Amino acid sequence: MREGSSNPPAAATQPMLGTAYRTALTQFDDTADRLHLKPGLRALLRSPKRELIVHFPVKMDEGSIKMFTGFRVQHNVARGPAKGGIRYHPEVALDEVRALAMWMTWKCALANIPYGGAKGGVAVDPKGLSFTELERLTRRYTSEIALLIGPERDIPAPDVGTNEQVMAWMMDTFSMQQGFSVPGVVTGKPVSVGGTLGRTEATGRGVAVITGEALRSLGMPVQGAKVAIQGLGNVGSHAARYFRDMGCTVVALSDSRCALYNPGGLDVDGLLRWKRETGSCSGYSGAEEITNEALLALPVDILVPAAIEGVLTEKTASSVQARLIVEGANGPTTPEADQILAQRDVTVIPDILANAGGVTVSYFEWVQNLQFYFWDATEVNRNLERILTRAFGEVAAAAKRHSVSFRTAAMMLAISRVSEAVEVRGIYP
Ligand code: NAD
């Protein structure tokens, strides 16, 4: 590829960027420097390929009409169709979706599954909607982004604030418009409409599998290792169960409203039951109530941020006591925090490796949908472990070879793979 364009401005000198996008671009810039990426290739990989913003009406239950804003961003599709979740959260914004789409490109490349990266979302608090309003919002948003999605183009999945019911509505809306069932348009669907066994718990299971590998590589014992998990949604709740089953002691868990700590270990199932029945961790009697910030600073072996971006910052990173951080969430650590943690000898297993279990089983679901042939749970989980342990081994070997952090090693591998695909395909026309 001939090179002409100059390097884009570094993320650090673009103060108006949202936190997540600044983090994603800084991580990319650092890695591009190390890989000596040619300027044109660098500019191409730094930019989203396609961005769609939609403003759409939803009829509320009491008869009024409310406008919502939604997004779908495809970062890169050199290695295959775009893939990435749909987020419903009041703070969803274009910059955040861009960051999440870029991370998906690297994550899929690192797991070596044939996808590019995408992400979507609607700026909405789903808890403020009734079930029927949520359905109408989902169906209208799906119609608005239908020009981009499809099994061979772009395949959404659940993320923060969405779940398998939302995926079922998306699949049904797209299918109705086509005139026939298209199960492969989304993953993370209920099993009754073409979902795969093992998808709901896949990200949490993957977090536990990767943590096991990391503990072994650091020479830390699994049995009795103390774990604090921030976020008690899909990722955090399943991760908590797998950690407990591995023999770790889960001492702290939290949701957006409260955090709970019991140094002797929490009853994970009891707490999850309490949250299911009451809607919050608050008021649970088997633990002390602390703040979410205090959870990050607990005396534990393993800290798992599994909620939102940007929680480990310049301010919070210096009080972390864990030796190992496993990023269940996407983008929980800012570049400044990364530096502080490295100086303090805290090992960080990056999101694009730690939470890749979700997209890996989404890939299995899509393969099953395209073949109309379904796997049993043993096959799903065996293949998940095979892909994740291979990815961990490749990252650990690269980290050792280049004397770099796990994040840098993972980013170097991922960006090299996407770069190779871009270069070998060439620039059209
Ligand atoms: P979820 O909506 O199921 O759960 C999110 C959890 O975070 C909830 O318990 C919520 O109360 C908590 N939370 C929200 N704001 C918080 C705050 N300020 N402080 C503490 N807790 C807060 O979402 P999820 O699917 O579990 O996703 C969590 C993270 O994992 C996100 O970063 C997401 O992008 C990432 N992720 C999810 C998947 C997946 O398969 N669902 C896959 C890969 C990565």
What does this structure look like?
With 429 residues, the protein is of the alpha/beta class. 46% of the residues lie in helices and 16% in strands. It contains 15 helices and twelve strands. The strands form two sheets. It has a seven-stranded mixed sheet, sandwiched between helices. A five-stranded mixed sheet has the order 1-2-4-3-5. Helix 6 (202-218) crosses helix 7, helix 6 (202-218) packs across helix 13 (357-371) and helix 13 (357-371) crosses helix 14. The structure holds nicotinamide-adenine-dinucleotide. Nicotinamide-adenine-dinucleotide binds at residues 158-161, 203, 230-236, 254-256, 292, 306-308, 328-330, 355, 358.
Tags for this model:
429 residues, single chain, 7-stranded mixed beta sheet, binds nicotinamide-adenine-dinucleotide, 5-stranded mixed beta sheet, 46% helix, alpha/beta, globular
Quick summary:
With 429 residues, the chain is α/β, with parallel strands linked by helices. The chain has helices at residues 19-35, 39-46, 94-111, 131-145, 164-178, 202-218, 234-246, 268-278, 292-296, 314-317, 335-343, 351-354, 357-371, 377-402, 406-425, and strands at residues 50-59, 65-76, 82-89, 116-123, 154-158, 226-230, 249-254, 259-261, 288-290, 302-305, 324-326, 347-349.
